[in-house]
Each structure stands twice: as structure tokens, then as C-alpha cells.
Amino acid sequence: MQNEPLPIITVFVPVTRNSNLEVLDLALFSLSGQSFDKFEVLLLYEFNPWMNQEPHHILRNYPFNEFTISKSKSLHIPSFEWESLASVFELASGDFFLWMEENSVFYTHALESLFKARSRNQAALTIAGTKKSLLKRDGVSKVFHAVSKRNLSTRSHTPYEAFVMKAICTSSILVDRNQVLPSFKWTCFSSALSFNDNWVLSLLAQFKPDTELFTIPLCESLFFSIEQYEDEKTLPLFTQKMQIPCSEIQRLVLENEQLRKVTAKRTVRWALKLSDFLKSHPKTNWILTNIYSSLHKIISTHLFSFSTD
Amino acid sequence: MNSTILTIGVLTFNNSQSELSRWYRSLSLALQQLDSTLQVRVLSLDNGERSWLAEQPNIQSLKPIGNVGFARGVNHLMEEAFVRQGSDYFITCNPDGYFHPLCLKHLLANHLKNPKAIIEARIFPEEHPKTYDLKTGQTNWAVGCCLFIPKDIFVATLGFDTNFFLYLEDVDFSWRCRDLGFQVIFSPSSFYGHGLHGRNEGAVSRRSQLMKAGAYFAKKWNLKKELHKLEENTLLETERPTVISGKFNGRKYNEGEFFVFSKVRW
Questions:
Q1: Given A29, A143, A220, which is nearest B100 (Cβ)?
Q2: B199 touches chain A (CB under 8 A)
Q3: Do A107 and B195 lie within an 8 Å CB cutoff?
Q4: A239 interfacial to chain B (CB closer than 8 Å)
Q5: Which of A242, A252, B129, B231 could form a cystine bridge with B264, CB 3.0-4.6 A?
Q6: How far apart are CA A177 and CA A97, in angstroms?
Q7: Contact A35/B at CB under 8 A
Q8: B40 closest CA partner among B50, B52, B28
Q9: Is A10 helix (H, G, I), strand (E, B) or coil?
């Protein structure tokens, strides 16, 4: 039927062999309660006979809406790599994409807020904040409890920094298909990074996001490990000696830094000046990422004048 | 043979059709998980305009009694359920939320373990930060967003204190239950979806309601220091609450900041 309405947002939900199905269930539960109902769910999972159709079963449990009931798709894909997924993106009906991490849950107004913000800003990417939630599983009942939640401040950070700090996550980024896909260039910054991370970095490298909702958490990332929960730089960008992924992101970091210098008081927790740092660590062959790693969040314009080997 | 009767009660106040149909769809799924010998009834009461739920065939819509507030409205539903229809259990739930498919099943299972308790569902994802015992589920007070109440507790308490119009009636109800020797239990596996978005709409009016409820609560539970602070608030100047004599000891239960009343997890 030609006049059949199409969903506006396509939500991709990946399911890997390591997926925690109870958390996936909560992710889908949170989707089923969205105040915005013009979305479809595309469940993507690796073909694993041991999974015994469980994701399908979970998906059918939920009364999403007219689109997701009638048109939701579950696709087997061999791996979460761009080559496998490029065609999947083409199968999506929505004008907007949202890649939902399997450990994420949405607040009831998440899709509505992202969509409304996009309607105002017309940006290729619309980014909202993320809250982190630490879960603890009861050994006997197997029930998991939320023992802590935290909201990382993104106020003085660029989207790239916020992403590295895990103050935003893949699930909190709404992607405008028509602005992004035609010119999108997939970059695998590192095979040490997950597909999600490479996807977001590729997006941030090429498109300027709108950050109206940047400081407003619309979803929660659920963690069972206190290390992951507390770590503000879980991405191996630092530890794997990765450089800031591309010149565009470097430019954004620089721009943001300069803006901060001009407009904001210097509240940064930079306890150590770069010059002092170098005095106390007299290595001659410091590379950019080592400095970056050691200084954590310190991003100085001076930093970029050093050799990167 | 008389079967056990569970009544689900929902009090609406000008909720949108999409909100109510979401609640209704989720209820249908959650009911499928229950034992078929259990008899389930659904009652609705509109505090505002006639709602979409009132037109649904499987829901008994009670004759409206005006905008009487949360406590009086839910009591009206409970009286219908327990007194006139002979229910054994009642679950009050906010219509802007939605059930996890296993929510009701887990609430009932929890009741079997804790028959002398009111049982609070786990609000999801924006869970209240108050603490609870990870092993027993015991908690300081129960959020009234989705709450399981057995008949004997209703009989003992006569439900919520109708002097509360909005806010804090659930804390008061929980503490009265505890005063009477009942337990207040949090069920971590009973998820009830609910958002806090839109809470800023009509913020002044809501805040005024909250302050009024707070002042009444503090007076009732003999929380004098807290009452003094609240009385300094300008929002109370025009409309001070009717006071009943303070025979209750709030110090016995209060473990945290006023309006939270509990230690918090975050």
C-alpha cells in the first residue's frame, strides 16, 4: 500500500553472543513505553543457534505500537562490522536512526525529546546525555538491584570528550539518515573499539552535532562492573595509545578549548600544567596520546604542537 | 469454590488516550502471565474528564465523584473492590505508567512470601533512590505509583489519609502500616515503567501542593523542626492545612531528608 505510513525513527538493537538477555529485555521494555510511537525496532543479532530464538521471543512480548508490531524485523548478521551492517541501514524505514546499545534503557520521553530537538535544530546528529547505573545481582534470587546512579557533567566538554568519558553513549544520538548516509564514511579507528564506538566516532568526525539536550540524560547505561561504572574513560582511546581520531575532532576539541578560554573561567581540574608535567616526566619521545593519557582530561592547545611520532 | 480476586485500580486525571492505551496494552500482557484461577477485575475512576479507559469493555468505570485528589480517589476504588466486590488484593497504579509483562506475577509471588505487607513495584527506569534491604526487600516507605495492598491491610488502615490531596499520602500510609505491625516491601523484580518527564509543568501549583502536604505530614507525625521550616515557606501563606492532632511518631521512621524520609542509594 503506497499510502501506508512509515515509522519516523528506526531503532537498531544489536544482540551479540555476549548479550545479557535480561538487560536486553529491559531495553525493549523501555522502548515499549515511549511517549513517541512512530518508530520501528530492528533487532540485529548474530546467528547463534544456541540463542534458540530468545531475542524474538522477548521482542514479541512487547506491545510497542502499530509500526513495531507489524513491521519490526529481526535480522541475522554475521558480525557487527560496517561491511555487514551497511545494507542493514538501507533496510531501515525511518528517516532517523538510533543505535541502541544493549545495555541501555530509555526514559519514557527519550525518543520524543530527541525528535523534537531535531525538528528545531535540523542537525545531522542530535545528542542527549546519559546517566550511568550500577547494578548488582543477587546471588540467590538472581534479581539485579540498582545500587548507584550517576550523571556525568557534559557542560564544559565537546561531544567527543563526553563520549570518551561515557557521559553520552551510542543510544543517546539521533542520526538524520538523509543528511548522514549519502556522505558517510565509515572509519574503523581501532579494532580494539567496539562497532558502537567506531560508529559514533565516525559520525562525530564528519558531522556537527546539536547539543541542545547534551546535558539532559534521556537514557541510562547499565553496568554490572564497578570498574566500568566508575571509569570515566572506559573507551580504550587512551589506553590503546590511540590518537584523537581525526583532524575534524581535533578541530572540535581545539575550538571548544579556545571557546572555554574566552568565555569561561578556568575551572578545569587541571592540577598540572603541561610544562610542569613535562619537567617531571623528562621523556623526549612523548607522543600525543601518552600525554593525553597521563593528563586525563587535560586538553591544551599547546598539546597539538608536539610530535605525534 | 470461591476463587481469589485481584482488583487493579487506576485513577485518571485528564490522561491522554495514548498514555492510557499504553497502560491498557501493558496490562493485557501482564494479565496473561497470571494463574488462570485468579479472578482479575479492573476498576477506573476519573478525577478529571471522562477518560478513554471508561469506554473499554473490560474495565468497570466508577461514577466520577469530582476531582477529589489521589488519596480519596484510590480509597473510593479500594472500597468498591474490597467492600462491595469482595476482592482479596488491590493494586493501585498510575495511568501514566506501564506494566512489565511479569510485574503482576512477581507482585503476587512476593505477596506469598510477605502476606502481611504492602508491596511496592520497582519504578523503571527512573527509580526512587530510597534504600531497601537487598535480601528482604524491606523499605522505609512505599511509592504509591504501583502498589499492592491486601485486604486485611485495607481493613486495618481504611486506606490512605484523605487529608492528603496529592503527595506524601504514600509515605503516611506506609508508616501507618508499620505502626500497625505490617511490613513495607519493595519488589525489585516487579518493574513498572514510569517517567518523571513533565513534572515541571505547573511547577508552582505542584510545589504548593507538595508544601501543603508536607506541612500536614510534619504536623501529623510530630516532625516539629521540619514543620517550622515548611511554615516559613511563602507558598503556605495563603492556604495552611487543617491539622489533626499529632499522635504519630515520625522520628521513629524518618531516616533522611524531609520529602525523602529515607537513606538514599544515589
A1: A29
A2: no
A3: yes
A4: no
A5: B129
A6: 6
A7: yes
A8: B28
A9: strand
pLDDT at A297 over 50: no
Distance CA A274, CA A304 (A): 12
At A290, the pLDDT band (50, 70, 90 cuts) reads very low
Please tell me which of the candidates A26, A33, A107 has its beta carbon nearest to residue B22: A33
- At residue A55, the pLDDT reads 57
Q: What is the mean pLDDT of residues A84-108?
A: 90
Q: What is the mean pLDDT of residues B211-233?
A: 88
Q: Which of chain B's residues have a Cβ under 8 Å away from the Cβ of A149?
A: 129, 265-266
Q: Does A138 touch chain B (CB under 8 A)?
A: yes
Question: From the CA of A260, how many Å to the nearest CA of chain B?
Answer: 30
Residue A274 pLDDT class (50, 70, 90 cuts): very low
% residues pLDDT > 90 (chain B): 82
Q: What CA–CA distance (Å, rounded) separates A100 from A221?
A: 10
> Residue A146: which of B135, B193, B265 has the nearest Cβ?
B265
Report, as an integer, the average pLDDT of B8-21: 95
Answer yes or no: is pLDDT of A123 > 90.
Answer: yes
Q: Which three cell numbers stand for residue A89?
A: 541501514
In this structure, are residues B145 and B123 in contact, taking their beta carbons and an 8 Å threshold?
Answer: yes
Q: Provide, as residue numbers in chain B, all residues whose Cβ is less than 8 Å from the Cβ of A60.
A: none
* Per-residue burial over B129-154, b = 16 or more CB atoms within 10 Å of its CB, e = otherwise: ebbbeeeebbbbbbbbbbbbbbbebb
B175 vs A75, higher pLDDT: B175
Place of cell 538493537: A13
C-alpha cell at B27: 496490562
Suggest the residue from A25, A28, A29 to mutate for an interface test with chain B (most B CBs closer than 10 A): A29
Contacts of A108 in chain B (CB under 8 A): 193-195, 197
- Half-sphere exposure for A130 (CA within 13 Å, toward CB): 27
- Is the whole model's pTM more than 0.95, yes or no? no
Amino acid at A116: K
The band of A59, judged by pLDDT with boundaries at 50, 70 and 90, is low
For residue A114, give the 3-state DSSP assignment.
Answer: helix
Residue A119: count of CB within 10 angstroms of its CB: 9
DSSP for A131-157?
EEEEEEE-TTT--EEEEEEEE---TTS
pLDDT in tens, B105-145: 999 999 999 999 999 999 999 999 999 999 999 999 999 99
CA distances, B25 to each of A62, A118, B20 (Å): 9, 29, 9
Residues of A in contact with B129 (CB under 8 A): 149
Inform me whether the pLDDT recorded for A242 exceeds 60: no
Decide the pairing of beta strands B117-125 and B146-150.
antiparallel
B195 vs chain A: nearest CA distance in angstroms? 5
